Amino acid sequence: xxxxxxxxxxxxxxxxxxxxxxxxxxxxxxxxxxxxxxxxxxxxxxxxxxxxxxxxxxxxxxxxxxxxxxxxxxxxxxxxxxxxxxxxxxxxxxxxxxxxxxxxxxxxxxxxxxxxxxxxxxxxxxxxxxxxxxxxxxxxxxxxxxxxxxxxxxxxxxxxxxxxxxxxxxxxxxxxxxxxxxxxxxxxxxxxxxxxxxxxxxxxxxxxxxxxxxxxxxxxxxxxxxxxxxxxxxxxxxxxxxxxxxxxxxxxxxxxxxxxxxxxxxxxxxxxxxxxxxxxxxxxxxxxxxxxxxxxxxxxxxxxxxxxxxxxxxxxxxxxxxxxxxxxxxxxxx
Length: 334
Prior knowledge:
By secondary structure, this protein is an alpha/beta fold.
């Protein structure tokens, strides 16, 4: 219900007496009008949130409304969004191969599996994905802090050489400066992460490498989750003219939207930057991994998702060449 308007020191009974109306009449009028006003206010807030965050589902919309001070639950938000046609099915993504694990470089075991993180800069995860542009493909490498889900390093270029991944790693190192021996770096078994150029940077900063098991994307689920979010909320909704346009737009999404504004369910529906700030201030009263005091309740996933404004040319309707990198020799490591 809507919060009562201030009425000073006068009671409802006194106000009714001054207005020469009965209390029963006042409450009958309130019951007939206030709920409708409250419903309109909630619908308006849902529409505003849906316009501001074009790819939020009903759970994140619920969390956003709760942050604004509205007392709503996810079931009501789902009902109102469905009634206003704000939900639809997501389309199936197109997949381009960016990992070549058939190489002659050493592969290290998975050290990240089963880790219990207690703070930032204990585990970084890295991955590479493709970005479709008007006439070609570009490739994005990212480094993400596994505890706060913040993207701390990224690089975009038109090749899949090891220098792409190294550039993202160097950005992360410059931003964080982790003490030697305190950090594990996890990735897939791709040649970009196994070759000498990349492992030399890790060794120089006292970072222990870790790699996923063969053919198991769940070992790097946090990085994969970010890539899915990036594709759905930024790449698929954009039409990049060239690599400069893509680099500028994706950089804005990472720094301004994902890191600073997008609510993350694993962080009790807070943005990564806000979560890290609360840790630094020593005021993080909510339990990590979404176990907050009053998190939005969970129930069976709805088969509906909200429509995006993308055109008819979906990712699955276009073909692209499969990209494979050759073995990276010590003297010719890209």
